[in-house]
Amino acid sequence: MKTDDEVKELVRQKYSEIALQDKSTNESSCCGSGCCSEEVYNIMNDDYSNLEGYNPDADLGLGCGLPTQFAQIKKGDVVVDLGSGAGNDCFVARAETGEDGKVIGIDFTEAMINKARENAEKLGFHNVEFRQGDIEKMPVSASTADVIVSNCVLNLVPNKDNVFKEIYRVLKPGGHFSISDIVLVGDLPSQLQNAAEMYAGCVSGAIQKGNYLDLIKNNGFENIMIQKEKAITIPDDILANYLNPEELLAYKAGNTGIFSISVFAQKPSEEACCKPGCCS
Predict the structure, then answer these.
(1) Does pLDDT of 27 surpass 50?
(2) Which residues face 124 on adjacent strands?
(3) Cα distances (Å, whole numbers) of residue 209 to 25, 164, 213, 259
(4) How far is residue 142 from each of residues 10, 146, 169, 172, measured CA to CA in Å?
């Protein structure tokens, strides 16, 4: 069993490599993990190309949803993107929030931050900022963000409860998040759960869907809803790297499912908070 720090270092190393890969390599693998399949198609991510603000240079093909599409971003909003990569969701969010708003991208990996900053400079965006940091301890002040988005990142984090606590802290009262992530229904075979490539590829770091939603509720969020859900099918030639033929058949015949979900939730407004004298 790896420690949290060991898992984080694994993710840092893997995504430093991914930052230097081309998009086609990332799209034909498990979120860029490099476990390439002969079935070359997007295993996880959705098509951004029709969204305003989309920039192909910032799209590494690493996502598993379109959180910005559902994020209800308004003009002038402050938006924080967790695990911002090369800046893809940040630039789409900027198209929504406009020049009067601000977008802050946070990423764990120096190579990703450098790539995102280069993209922002090429685009001439002066209200998009990238900060290197751990989303379990965000380099952002409390009550800063109107909206938080994230695309296939929390599943990589060992302590997801810490991240939701940080999201709550950073959101303004009444603010909300829209997060796309990978969750499970049923238990993955241990071979997949322990495989480093599959971990960095978004799958084996995922938790049960019910537990994921409970974390959100238990951290004080309200109006929780799943905005989109889709099943993820991993090709047999990738699964065969981890499972023998009998195990592969049993896995496919079982009730285990891997899903991409986009989840919305809101931090209670100040009016909903318990003030001195109003609580029993």
Answers:
(1) no
(2) none
(3) 28, 15, 6, 8
(4) 29, 11, 5, 8
> What angle separates helix 160-170 from helix 209-218, to the nearest 10 degrees?
40
Residue 36 has pLDDT above 70, yes or no: no
Separation between Cα atoms, residue 274 and residue 280, nearest integer Å: 10
The strand pairing partners of 80, in sequence order, are: 104, 148
Q: Coil, strand, or helix at residue 5?
A: helix
Measured distance CA(52)–CA(272) in Å, rounded: 35
Where do the domains of the chain lie, and which CATH numbers do they carry? 4-266 (3.40.50.150)
**Whole-angstrom distance, CA of residue 23 vs CA of residue 100:** 31
Tokens of 255: 């009730």
Q: Are 18 and 63 in contact (CB under 8 A)?
A: no
Rounded to the nearest 5 percent, the helix, strand and coil shares of the chain are 35, 20, 40
pTM: 0.82
Quote the CA–CA distance of 59 and 21 in Å, as a whole number: 11
Q: How far is CA 199 from the centre of its chain?
A: 14
Give the pLDDT confidence score for residue 200 in this predicted structure: 56
CA distance 98 to 87: 16
What are the tokens at 91? 């630039």
| pLDDT at residue 280 tops 80 | no
Q: What are phi and psi of 40, to 5 degrees?
A: -85, 100
pLDDT beyond 70 at 40: no
The residue behind tokens 């829209």 is 178
Going by pLDDT thresholds of 50, 70 and 90, the confidence category of residue 38 is: very low
Whole-angstrom distance, CA of residue 72 vs CA of residue 270:
20
What Å distances lie between residue 227 and 135, 217, 261, CA to CA? 23, 16, 7
The answer to whether 93 and 120 are in contact (CB under 8 A) is no
